[in-house]
Amino acid sequence: MSTNAAKYVQVDHVDMEFTTKKGTFVALQDVCLNIAQGEFIALIGHSGCGKSTLLNLIAGLTLPTRGAMLLAGREIPGPGPERAVVFQNHSLLPWLTCFENVHLAVERVFGGREKKAALRARTEAALELVGLAHAMHKLPGEISGGMKQRVGIARALSMEPKVLLMDEPFGALDALTRAHLQDELMRIVQATGSTVVMVTHDVDEAVLLADRIVMLTNGPAATVGEVLKVDLPRPRNRLEVAEDAAYNHYRAEVLKFLYERQRRPAAA
Amino acid sequence: MNVVLPMKPAPEQPPAADAVLIEPKNADAATAALAAAPRPPVAAAAPARPDLLAPLGAFLNAVMPALLGLALLLTLWAAVAQMNPQLPGPLKTWEAAVEVFADPFYRNGPNDQGIGWNVLSSLQRVGIGFGLAALVGIPAGFILGRFRFANAMLQPVIALLRPVSPLAWLPIGLLVFKKADPAATWTIFICSIWPMILNTAQGVQRVPQDYLNVARVLNLSEFKIVTRILFPAVLPYMLTGIRLSIGTAWLVIVAAEMLTGGVGIGFWVWDEWNNLKVESIVIAIFVIGVVGLLLENALLLLARRFQYDAK
């Protein structure tokens, strides 16, 4: 049981190749990673290194060329609501209100067993969780970028996924909104005990949020370069950890990896 | 300032300040007098005037260029008519138009009907032909957009037939249907269907991958994918196709009716040409233009209703 929980998500010697006009492009090579249940993993690396590719593999949106992707011991056959994705650009359907966007997901996952009122309550609860009860009936075009991203998170959380996958969810936001959403995410994950994999390029975000930071080497043929365990007590407070020696040590470690060992190719 | 003022419940004090500002700077005595009796009327009038004038100015700014353009058209027309006495000028046409529009819905047998009936029967033909084209073209567009094989199969056929003038199909219609009316409708069908198929197909192909990824992660049923994602995403493209089709159909119906006869604005043009009533032809040109403009704008309005900010 304990080994099962420790290897909840297994990425087992995975290669990912794409066929392009110029021939085969090897995005990921021999990636191995085990993620424990309830763990928060941050995937970090330079842009183009295949972070999103790895996330899409876990989501099942793409299937690996070689190797195996397992969830709770079973092969991941394709995308599914038990592995909810928060997309980089929120991907809300612009013709549906925030409520309808979330409800679409709730209906799909719980529609078979629950009554309409219960589904509505779930949708409302998810939007309340991200502090958007007041904007429920607005269209995505009528709310700010940060709010849209929160609806995206609400949609993912509303499915009660086994694994929450986030692809640079706060990348397009201003620093203040980002900090606010990071705090909310920490609170929500603490409360729900979700397993989270988050792609990020923000070192502070990775250290603040993650239990382990998985650093990828530069692509092509990227692989796991280093894994850093972030042993900071939770709940974490961004102001307190900023003064914390351990926090700064972790931060320095990630920076060293990114800027010394995996220095970015000059022009990229 | 003007916008805020009318919303205030007690207009006495702040409008008075405005009113004083608008007035030329008077002596203290005059200000004191203003403060006493005439303040309420001044306060009421002063903010109202710019309120009324501002939209009027904006309206003029928006409409003036269009009016100037029309005036230019009329001038050119009058000048050409002056040089060529056979061509009726604006005034003569206006007089004829007053007569034509005095009774647009009269009926003196099948070949002599009011302009209203003619326009309506043309619109009806366009409506039927166009409706049938939509019925066939939109589903066909979905299939072409969704299945690469169907696309590869039908693309050459469409590429071959699309550039053909719809009027070239008219004899085929006459041959098959043995009657003028369905033949004209058939012509409209043929000319409307291509933009509808192609735009719908393009819309389906351009549904953002993000939305489809959402569908895949949620594992939505095919029905939900079509109703919640594909249809709304394709709708703007479909409406563009519809708008282009209607435009072409309206162009083609006039020509088709000239050839087939019966009732219709195109036939009316031809009939009036045979009667040598050139004013009527000019009137018909305006009527055709106005109806086309209205159709186009109605569809643009409809399209705007379904234009979502994708960001």
UniProtKB/TrEMBL annotation, chain A:
Residues 11-243 form the ABC transporter domain. The keyword ATP-binding applies. Keywords: ATP-binding, Cell membrane, Membrane, Nucleotide-binding, Transport. It comes from the Bacteria. It is found in: Cell membrane. The keyword Kinase does not apply. CDD domains: ABC_NrtD_SsuB_transporters (cd03293). Belongs to the ABC transporter superfamily. This is Nitrate/nitrite transport system ATP-binding protein. It comes from Plasticicumulans lactativorans.
Automatic annotation (TrEMBL), chain B:
GO terms for biological process: alkanesulfonate transmembrane transport; monoatomic ion transport. Residues 119-300 form the ABC transmembrane type-1 domain. GO terms for molecular function: nitrate transmembrane transporter activity. Gene3D superfamilies: MetI-like. GO terms for cellular component: plasma membrane. Pfam families: BPD_transp_1 (PF00528). Keywords: Cell inner membrane, Cell membrane, Ion transport, Membrane, Transmembrane, Transmembrane helix, Transport. It is a multi-pass membrane protein. The chain crosses the membrane at residues 58-80, 126-145, 157-177, 183-201, 248-269, 281-303. It is found in: Cell inner membrane; Cell membrane. Belongs to the binding-protein-dependent transport system permease family. NCBIfam families: ntrB (TIGR01183). This is Nitrate/nitrite transport system permease protein.
